[in-house]
């Protein structure tokens, strides 16, 4: 089964400027995503999709392929990453004559993840029970219990009223936060549907300490602290 790891790394980032090339403990976030992808034995090829020649150069130095530069229309702040996945798959289909069996997407923003997290995602996907596999962590808040939404009259109420009195968060339906550790998808599904949750979505639970998503300077400082605390 052929597995292509896709790393999407555009040049613009409003929350944390230069995020993809920012160094964390001596390696850029981009290089860390490439390193991890290459460490997964089932990955046959690592491809970086970017609009930046600087990012492309860093990617190649780190051992990834950059067979194309992403068009500017797919590198805007509001460009859906789903379309970036499609663009890469369309390229592979045109050049190779077929899609890979499996598309693994490894965002640069989760540098604390481990190879075992990716392996478990691939295992779950290869069970054949879903179109997509996402990674999640246990949520500490629940829309049925302690998350509120505003009302037109200026008051707030539970985001999702449970229909019965709930006095403990533990009594609510099980809720997870989606993380950016990894996504695994069937290429044909990506090319024919509009988003992840249009299909059968399976999940893998990742420990919270390995699921940090870097989007702001504060997130990056937390990552530096977590990285410094890792055992040698």
Secondary-structure topology with pairs:
Layout: E1 3-8, E2 23-24, E3 27-28, H1 29-39, E4 45-49, H2 53-61, H3 81-96, E5 102-105, H4 115-126, E6 132-138, E7 148-150, E8 156-158, E9 176-185, H5 187-192, E10 201-205, H6 217-229
Task: Pick out its properties.
232 residues; single chain; six-stranded mixed sheet; two-stranded antiparallel ribbon; Spore Coat Polysaccharide Biosynthesis Protein SpsA, Chain A; 2 domains; alpha/beta
Could you estimate the helical fraction of the residues in percent? Answer: 25-40%
Tell me, rounded to a whole number, the average pLDDT: 92
% residues in beta strands: 15-25%
Principal-axis shape: globular
- Main sheet specs: 6 strands, mixed
Classification by helices and strands: alpha/beta
The oligomeric state of the chains shown is: single chain
Helix-strand topology string = EEEHEHHEHEEEEHEH
- The CATH topology annotation of the largest domain reads as Spore Coat Polysaccharide Biosynthesis Protein SpsA, Chain A
CATH architecture grouping of the largest domain: Alpha-Beta Complex
Q: How many strands? A: 10
Order of strands in the sheet with most strands: 4-1-5-9-6-10
Unreliably modeled segments: none
Name of the CATH first level of the largest domain: Alpha Beta
Number of helices: 6
Cα gyration radius (Å): 19 Å
* The CATH homology group name of the largest domain: Spore Coat Polysaccharide Biosynthesis Protein SpsA, Chain A
């Amino acid at each position: 089964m052929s597995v292509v790891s896709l790393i999407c790394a555009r040049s613009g980032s409003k929350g944390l400027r230069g995020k993809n090339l920012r160094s964390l403990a001596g390696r850029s976030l981009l290089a860390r995503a490439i390193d991890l992808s290459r460490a997964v034995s089932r990955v046959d090829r690592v491809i970086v999709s970017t609009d930046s020649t600087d990012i492309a150069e860093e990617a190649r130095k780190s051992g990834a392929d950059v067979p194309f530069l992403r068009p500017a229309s797919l590198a805007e702040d509001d460009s859906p990453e789903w379309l970036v996945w499609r663009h890469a798959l369309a390229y592979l289909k045109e050049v190779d004559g077929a899609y890979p069996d499996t598309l693994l997407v490894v965002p640069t923003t989760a540098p604390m993840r481990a190879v075992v997290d990716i392996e478990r995602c691939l295992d779950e996907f290869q069970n054949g029970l879903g179109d997509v596999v996402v990674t999640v962590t246990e949520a500490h808040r629940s829309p049925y219990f302690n998350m509120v939404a505003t009302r037109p009259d200026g008051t707030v109420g539970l985001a999702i009223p449970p229909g019965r009195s709930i006095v403990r968060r533990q009594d609510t339906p099980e809720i997870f936060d989606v993380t950016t550790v990894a996504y695994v998808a069937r290429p044909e599904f990506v090319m024919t549907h509009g988003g992840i949750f249009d299909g059968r979505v399976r999940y893998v639970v990742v420990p919270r300490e390995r699921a940090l998503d870097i989007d702001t300077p504060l997130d990056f400082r937390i990552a530096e602290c977590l990285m410094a605390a890792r055992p040698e």
